[in-house]
Amino acid sequence: xxxxxxxxxxxxxxxxxxxxxxxxxxxxxxxxxxxxxxxxxxxxxxxxxxxxxxxxxxxxxxxxxxxxxxxxxxxxxxxxxxxxxxxxxxxxxxxxxxxxxxxxxxxxxxxxxxxxxxxxxxxxxxxxxxxxxxxxxxxxxxxxxxxxxxxxxxxxxxxxxxxxxxxxxxxxxxxxxxxxxxxxxxxxxxxxxxxxxxxxxxxxxxxxxxxxxxxxxxxxxxxx
Length: 224
Hints:
Number of domains: 1
Mean pLDDT: 90
CATH topology: Jelly Rolls
Largest sheet: 8 strands, antiparallel
Low-confidence stretches: 9-15
CATH architecture: Sandwich
Strand content: 35-45%
Helix content: under 10%
Distance between the termini: 56 Å
């Protein structure tokens, strides 16, 4: 009979521990909802028009105005926004990197960025620099995956220092870093050019009586 070889218990424990570390996967940070699905607690509106909560959704009315999150500035995070248009196409936007708490609707336009929601800007004599998922008038879309109303869209905006990426329906539309070239400003309603801060307030735009957009989710997740 061949003698049985004994492995010290400490060796077995050490091997098991190493295998556990090797197979363990770090958990992603949890998503924190900024909209509770019931009311606009934590949000404040500035400018014309307003927003309401109907059937668990934020609904835009009139405009042009802005509903912003009052909980403080965001940076180095992902922002997930789930929205749909009432009609085949409607106009709205998600504002990011707003340097100061808004008191009116135009400061965020000129000193933050608007991540556009508008699948067909050509109907207003604008171009693809104004299409869903771009930084309004500043970036050209890498793709055009926006779904018309009443289909739901999921937009994930990543703020990583001076870099901003926008993924719409799992497709990257924008990847922009501060200092990269942008086209000349053509309209007076387009934002002034200049660097934006690494952190800032965020908000949702209500554009006009003819543009109705519903928001089901606004959540934030810190980067690792």
